[in-house]
Design brief:
The complex is a heterodimer of chains A (about 140) and B (about 170). Chain A has about 140 residues and is mostly helical. Chain A is built from seven helices and two strands, in the order ααααβαααβ. The longest helix of chain A has 21 residues. In chain B, helix 2 crosses helix 3, helix 5 crosses helix 9 and helix 8 packs across helix 9. Chain B has about 170 residues and is mainly alpha-helical. The chains are: A mainly alpha (about 140), B mainly alpha (about 170).
Chain lengths: ~140, ~170
């Protein structure tokens, strides 16, 4: 057995994390080759030390801080969203308003568009003012 | 979407993730920052997690990527031992009569930990996952999206470099 093959097989043995002894052929090479003998000694020692190194624990309060960080981050995401029922109602009212406007106004397309835009704008403004009463935070239902 | 409690994920994985980031980055401050980054990414990505891979695989993947990103940003400062420099060690040490190999004392262990952070990003990741995270070839291969042969190569080369770094250090003391 040549040295490179021996060392490769030694690595494979270590990869299995087993305490199995060297095979006969490896043992024979190990006994006859000083270089590989030293290589084996140092590599086994390194492997054992790596296996023995204990885990590093985080500081006592770190995990709690991690949880608090997540809670704080979510609380800061103050995204208001429409309550589903209000959203539906607003949509139908807006459409109904547009249809009524279209019927009662002269058949002037430009005027119709202007009134439509005005209606939508007014509706948006009013809904913003009334937001706290009709909208909820994500994850919480207000009232 | 799978119903996963984020707080439970922190309870289960925080210590392991911290241990991995500490081994990769070499100090507590960077480890804490990296761990926070990992869990921030987990929190943001949970809603899109479909369960294609195991949850642990997904978390380890994020952990590895966060560490590798940090390392690549500091690559000029914390990875001085590249392949060319370590090849030179072959000439210096392979022909010497080696001293007694005693790696059991605490100082040696701390040196070993320090040397791991000096390996290449891939080698230190594989070494850390294999020895400290308790993962096997198959798991490491899935996490890093590498063939098992590449995982084996990185592991073997990492061990080899650690051995040579130790030789270099011992040589300086003599």
């Amino acid at each position: 057995m040549i040295c490179t093959e021996y060392q490769k097989q030694l690595h494979n043995l270590l990869d299995n994390k087993s305490d199995a002894p060297l095979s006969d052929i490896m043992q024979e090479h190990n006994e006859s080759c000083r270089r590989c003998y030293d290589y084996t000694t140092s590599m086994l020692s390194l492997h054992r030390e790596l296996m023995r190194i204990p885990a590093v624990e985080p500081k006592a309060d770190f995990i709690e801080k991690l949880k608090l960080l997540e809670i704080t981050r979510k609380e800061k995401q103050l995204i208001f969203s429409w309550k589903p029922d209000v959203r539906r109602a607003a949509l139908f009212i807006s459409l109904a308003g547009l249809v009524l406007i279209a019927q009662w106004l002269p058949t002037n397309f430009t005027i119709f568009i202007n009134f439509s835009i005005l209606t939508i704008g007014l509706a948006s403004f009013i809904s913003t003012m009334l937001k706290p009463f009709f909208f909820e935070r994500n994850g919480n239902t207000a009232g | 979407m799978i119903d996963i409690n984020f707080q439970n994920i922190i309870d289960t994985f925080a210590a392991q993730v911290y241990n991995h980031t500490y081994r990769m980055l070499g100090n507590r401050e960077d480890a804490e920052e990296a761990t926070q980054d990992v869990f921030l990414k987990i929190s943001n990505g949970l809603k899109n997690f479909r369960g294609d891979a195991k949850l642990s695989t997904w978390i380890w993947r994020i952990t590895a990527n966060v560490c590798l990103t940090r390392i690549s940003k500091k690559s000029g400062k914390t990875r001085p031992f590249n392949d060319d420099e370590l090849e030179d060690l072959n000439d210096v040490y392979d022909n010497q009569i080696n001293p007694e190999w005693n790696l059991i004392i605490q100082e040696e262990r701390e040196k070993l930990i320090h040397f791991i952070s000096k390996l290449s990003a891939r080698e230190s990741t594989v070494i850390t996952m294999f020895y400290f995270d308790g993962l096997d070839y198959n798991e490491i291969s899935n996490i890093l999206d590498l063939p098992m042969g590449s995982v084996a190569t990185a592991l073997h080369r990492g061990r080899e470099k650690l051995r040579k770094l130790f030789l270099l250090e011992e040589g300086k003391e003599i």
